[in-house]
Amino acid sequence: MKNFEPVLIIVDMQKGMQSYKPDHRNNPQAESNIAKLLAAWRQTGGLVIHVRHMSRTVGSVFWPGQIGAEFQDELQPLNGEHVVEKNVPDAFINSGLERWLRVRNINDVVIVGVSTNNSVEATARSAGNLGFKAIVVADGTYAYDQVDYAGTLRDADVVHAMALSNLDGEYAMIMTTNELLKAR
């Protein structure tokens, strides 16, 4: 797997995500792992795509023009790095992302960001369904506590693990930051 250079896709790492209480999420190191991956990609001249959620709901923290819609300071796109805006969890829907990748003959993608069971999972499912070889970085994404359909509160670690389990082997390969960096 050496000398493999997929595109790094960073999903929804916006200031609005920082407004949620950190004691209700897992992987507190996710942002630092994403920053580590971003630095590695930049160091080798790898392609990076920053995905930003732009809400259609007036008053949302992700409404255009709100500070919450801005990228987190340490994960700001550089000139030349592609930015995709989306209105739904899946970064491939109505965003031009698939076309951008196809035009460049890119088949391999690495997905990090938030949240594991929402935008990351939706994006990884589409990537797999569209024939891309996707990797989701388990410690480069995180989830929040969530009440399930039966009304039971599920811990963020459980929500995260189930989302990764939903993806593993069928839509994406699951790796850690260190495993991925060693594979490059």
UniProtKB/TrEMBL annotation:
Single GO MF annotation: hydrolase activity
Keyword Hydrolase: yes
Domain Isochorismatase-like: 7-156
Matches recorded under Gene3D superfamilies: Isochorismatase-like
Pfam families: Isochorismatase
Sorted UniProt keywords: Hydrolase
Keyword Iron-sulfur assigned: no
Protein origin, superkingdom: Bacteria
PANTHER family named among the record's database cross-references: ISOCHORISMATASE HYDROLASE, PEROXYUREIDOACRYLATE/UREIDOACRYLATE AMIDOHYDROLASE-RELATED
Protein name as catalogued: Amidases related to nicotinamidase
Originating species: Solimicrobium silvestre
